[in-house]
Design a protein that fits this description.
The chain is mainly β. The chain has two helices and 24 strands. The strands form five sheets. It has an eight-stranded antiparallel barrel with strand order 1-2-3-6-7-8-9-10.
Length: 332
């Protein structure tokens, strides 16, 4: 990802609540070990919450909450009517935002017209007019394709045993593949499965917050970034930078394993000229975010377009994003 944006630019139906962009500050430590992250009380508060109650309009509804850790006991909370993104809530549905501050054992939530708290693993929110009353419990979602087994005939690029299938391949202490790696093998049309884990960086903002990318054909980047709880723009997780935003932001909280499942058709060339654009479908954590779209040009930051076959590139962007369970099924 090449451009920098404020982490919390949330284009929300504000519903009378306030939402503030956060100023850029020191990035602080980058944590890739969940056990180490759990020592930070903020890590145990951040994440997703799900439940029901009445919305601002007084309607009984399922509701979701995404709590974004901003460091030093501060949080941004996004409430979504209908459930969590990809599970009842879709782009354009009602959502609202509050700010949170951890005070001892509880996190106090405040907004213009509403307040609440997170205590233990329960979030409660009420509006001043009494219409909104939500009771949500912390939940951890797992991608429906996490751990997918490579089918017969698949090319296994990484299974935790060796990084030798990648140029500059390096393994983490827990035997995951680190970012900044290019596959030795080259491909044309294929189906790809790849799993990634974002590091925990609550003090970082924007493009400095666990940044990487999956470059199909060495030139089309599916963004990898901790954009949990944000709008879901083309330069955020799941987006094709400057080409297309994902239909829904399916980014999970940091240190949760996530998946991309991709159907890719390479561009076609005749007599040295492009005769047909590349096409791609992408599922993020099992939810379709790009439905058989056309890629009219390459995304910035890597190679220009060109004929197949070409490698897969996992971008290094100064952060310690980890990958695992990477396999490709070639289409003949």
């Amino acid at each position: 990802m090449l451009r920098r944006t404020a982490l919390l630019t949330l284009s929300v139906a504000i519903c009378g609540f306030t939402c503030h962009a956060c100023a850029r500050g020191p990035e602080g430590p980058e944590i890739i070990d969940p056990a180490e992250a759990a020592k930070d009380p903020d890590f145990l508060v951040q994440g997703e919450y799900l439940g029901d109650g009445t919305w601002l309009d007084g309607e009984q509804a399922k509701a979701g909450g995404q709590v974004i850790a901003l460091g030093h006991g501060n949080f941004e909370v996004v409430l979504t009517k209908g459930g969590l993104p990809g599970d009842g809530w879709k782009r354009g549905d009602a959502q609202c935002a509050l700010k949170g501050n951890r005070e001892g054992e509880a996190t106090q939530l405040k907004g213009e017209g509403a307040s609440g708290k997170i205590a233990g693993e329960v979030m409660t929110v009420t509006s001043q007019d009494g219409k909104m009353k939500l009771h949500l419990k912390r939940t951890i979602r797992h991608s429906r394709t996490e751990g997918a087994k490579p089918p017969e005939g698949a090319v296994v690029l990484f299974d935790g045993t060796t990084a030798d299938h990648f140029r500059h391949g390096r393994m983490s202490p827990d035997k995951n593949l680190m970012s900044e790696a290019t596959s030795h093998q080259k491909f044309g049309d294929y189906r790809l499965h790849v799993e990634f884990r974002l590091s925990y960086m609550p003090n970082a903002r924007g493009q400095g917050r666990s940044n990487s990318g999956v470059y199909l054909h060495d030139c089309y980047e599916i963004q990898v970034l901790d954009s949990f709880g944000l709008e879901g723009k083309d330069n955020e997780c799941g987006g094709f930078y400057r080409l297309r935003a994902p239909d829904v932001n399916m980014c999970y909280p940091p240190l949760t394993w996530q998946t991309y499942d991709v159907e890719f058709t390479a561009p076609k060339y005749e007599n040295g000229r492009k005769a047909a654009n590349a096409r791609v479908s992408v599922k993020h954590n099992g939810v379709l975010i790009h439905p058989d779209i056309e890629l009219a040009r390459n995304t910035p930051g890597r190679e220009k377009e060109g004929p197949a076959p070409r490698p897969l590139y996992l971008q290094g962007h100064g952060n310690k994003v980890e990958f695992r369970n990477i396999w490709v099924v070639e289409k003949k």
